[in-house]
UniProtKB/TrEMBL annotation:
Record-annotated membrane-spanning stretches: none
Annotated Pfam families: CCG (PF02754)
Superkingdom classification of source: Bacteria
Protein name in UniProt: L-lactate dehydrogenase complex protein LldE
Residues in Cysteine-rich domain copies: 4-84, 127-221
Gene Ontology cellular component annotations, sorted alphabetically: cytosol
Gene Ontology molecular-function annotations: oxidoreductase activity
Amino acid sequence: MKIGLFIPCYVNQFYPNVAIATLHLLESLGVTAEYPLNQTCCGQPMANSGYGYLTDRCNTLFFKNFNSYDYIVSPSGSCVLHIKEHLHVNGFEDESHNLSKRVFELTEFLVDVLKADGIKSSFPFKVGLHQSCHGQRGLKLSQMSELVASPFSKTEFLLKEVKGLELIKLSRKDECCGFGGTFCVTEEAVSVKMGKDRVQDHIGHGAQYITGNDVSCLMHLEGILKRNKSRVKIIHIAEILTSEK
C-alpha cells in the first residue's frame, strides 16, 4: 500500500508529537507512510464559517498532494470528514470524488483496513474517552447512545487492547465538548460551559487522562483543565497506542 500522511495544520503547529506518534504507529504495523511537505490547511475553518468558496485552492492542493496514494491517513476525524464531504476540484470531479473515499481517520484505518489487533502498547492509567462529534456522527466511529442498536466503538476496541489501561465509564459518553471549530470563537461562553461540563464528567469518574481522536477537541478540554490547575492531562490515542510506560 502507498500511504499518504495527512497532518492537519493545528496538529502540525501545536501537537507535532501526535503526528510523530501516528507515523511510528503505522510503521510498527509494517506500513510505510509518506508525508507530502507542501500540504497546508484542508479548508475546514473557512467552510465552517460560511466561506466555502474560499477553499478552492485548498482542495486543489490537497488533490495534487494526495491523489497518487492508495490511502490517506490522518489523526483528525473532523478534517477527514471535511475532505470526505467537501473535496471538489473543478475539471477533476470524478477523480476528486474517488480520492475522498480513500481518506481515513487513524482508528478507522487501523480497524477497517489494517484489521489491526493486539497492538503492543502499555499505558497503566485511568483514561476517559472523549468521542468527538465529527468522528461519531459523521465518520460513524462509534454508535450514538440515542439509537437503539448494538453498541460499538472502534476507538474503544483499540484502547481495550492496551496493557494496564483502565477505560472509565462516563455519565454522558457522547456529549459534545463545545469546541465546534469557529463556534468556540463566536460563542465562547457557551463553548466554555460545555467544555467544563465535559471535563467534570471525566474528573468525577476518576480519569487521569482524557483521550480522543481529535486534537482540536482535546486542545479545548486541555485549556479548561489548565485554567483550573487540574492534574488531569489530555493525550491523543496515537500517543497511547505507541506508549511503552
